[in-house]
């Protein structure tokens, strides 16, 4: 599965499961660790974990094995590493504090 298809699959699943303010960041020109970062807001720490659990089930159904998950138990920020796509699900307060979109929207340096 191409990284763009995987990102779309994740976006769709997050949307179906009521994630808020889903943003997909194309970071291919900024880092070599991943192609896309998807940032979404959850209504609570439990919702954040649940959203990532649903995404894991969906990607496994499509033959993708997640690399890892961080911050599951009672965390305001759950990170799901799918290789070409990294998913950040955060509570509103954590998302406002860390401002990942702002961090990754800085233009890449020209060589």
Principal-axis shape equals globular
What is the CA-atom radius of gyration, in angstroms?
13 Å
> What is the structural class?
alpha+beta
According to DSSP, the number of beta strands is 5
In short:
With 111 residues, the chain is α+β, with helices and mostly antiparallel strands. The chain is 39% helix and 26% strand. It has a single domain (3-104), classed as Beta Polymerase, domain 2 (2-Layer Sandwich), CATH 3.30.460.10.
Describe the structure.
With 111 residues, the chain is of the alpha+beta class. The chain has a single domain (3-104), classed as 2-Layer Sandwich (Beta Polymerase, domain 2), CATH 3.30.460. Helices cover 39% and strands 26% of the residues. It has a 5-stranded mixed beta sheet. A hairpin with a 3-residue loop joins strand 4 (77-81) and strand 5 (85-91). Helix 1 crosses helix 2 (45-61). The termini are far apart. It comes from Methylomonas koyamae. Belongs to the Iojap/RsfS family.
Characteristics:
single chain; 111 residues; alpha+beta; Beta Polymerase, domain 2; 5-stranded mixed β-sheet; 39% helix; globular
SSE topology sketch:
Layout: H1 3-16, E1 20-26, E2 36-42, H2 45-61, E3 68-70, E4 77-81, E5 85-91, H3 92-98, H4 100-104
Parallel strand pairs: 2-5
Antiparallel strand pairs: 1-2, 3-4, 4-5
Helix pairs in contact: 1-2
